[in-house]
Amino acid sequence: MKILTIVGARPQFIKAAPVSRAIRKQHTEILVHTGQHYDDNMSGVFFRELAIPKPDYNLEVGSGGHGEQTGLMLQRLEPLVEQEQPDLLLIYGDTNSTLAGALTAAKLHIPLAHVEAGLRSFERQMPEEVNRVVADQLSNLLFCPTRTAVNNLQREGIGSNPQLDQRIYEVGDVMYDAVLHNLALAETHADFLLASLGLKPQGYTLATVHRAANTDDAIHLRSIVAALAQIGSVAQPVVFPVHPRTRKVMATLGITPGDAIKLIEPVGYLEMLNLERNARLIITDSGGVQKEAYFLAVPCLTLRDETEWVETVASGWNRLVGTVTDTIVAAARDVGAQGSAPTDPPPSLFGDGHAGERIAELVARLKVIDYR
Q1: Residues 157-179 pLDDT 10s
Q2: Are both 2-173+351-366 and 182-350 of the same fold?
């Protein structure tokens, strides 16, 4: 089969690595990078560290508003897909690159597969939620990371009769594949990384903030940074790899975090695994980091009022704390008092680490079906 894969943002590079590795053993893959994330810290380093093949095409869309960015992707994807004539178009997650890929496949009548299908935060104000819902409605094959994701799709009437509509498959989480595959390599450099930052294992809090709901709202961002500063001043230092968009907004608003927060540039995948694995606590608004915290058994506070990864909250390893300074600080203090989360996280909720292989096998087995 000829499979055209669309990626564009750093979480998608991580997800694509195990799938691409498995797909290329059985199929021909054409890899398209939309350029949604484009600088080396947000893109190039992930391709190198994860041994992802060099993209066959880079659309070089760059940053911009949702409409502008998605429109440029559609404009540049359509002639490329018509030229390549793939048997299947493969998309990941919930970014604008995901949406553009889904719409392109639908308009050109190309069978579409969605990896990480069925996730729902039930918050339509989030652009990611709209992207996932549209992608799932347009997809012919839906590869779900968890049973919860399968149930979400079935409640929406997708694949409600498996005998007549076999489109949904619970395959496990491809990010869990990536963690298992790369953790040993990441740990070989752990001591050097921590020493270079002046850190000790279990001696710091790790924070990430990048979602538009937090970065584009001055009140939210000021409140979050104030909380991180308090946590860093009364407990352990806070290490904050700053997303380019977040750094720009902080500069515009004149937000100066102070010495309790160690601002660093975005880091590569292996360095991020190191920082997560050795952190005492993780504070984030990232869906991927929530999961990685869970996989690595590190308590997590999520700077949102909802999450698509409800399993991590149900287990007690993740708490939704919103953006109010006092709430975030109190939750961090509570985690510190407890010493750890209540029980060991059961990674089996997210599969067995072979989701990428399972996806490649299913595509091979189902290739005779007319997905259209």
Answers
A1: 986 655 545 899 999 999 999 99
A2: yes
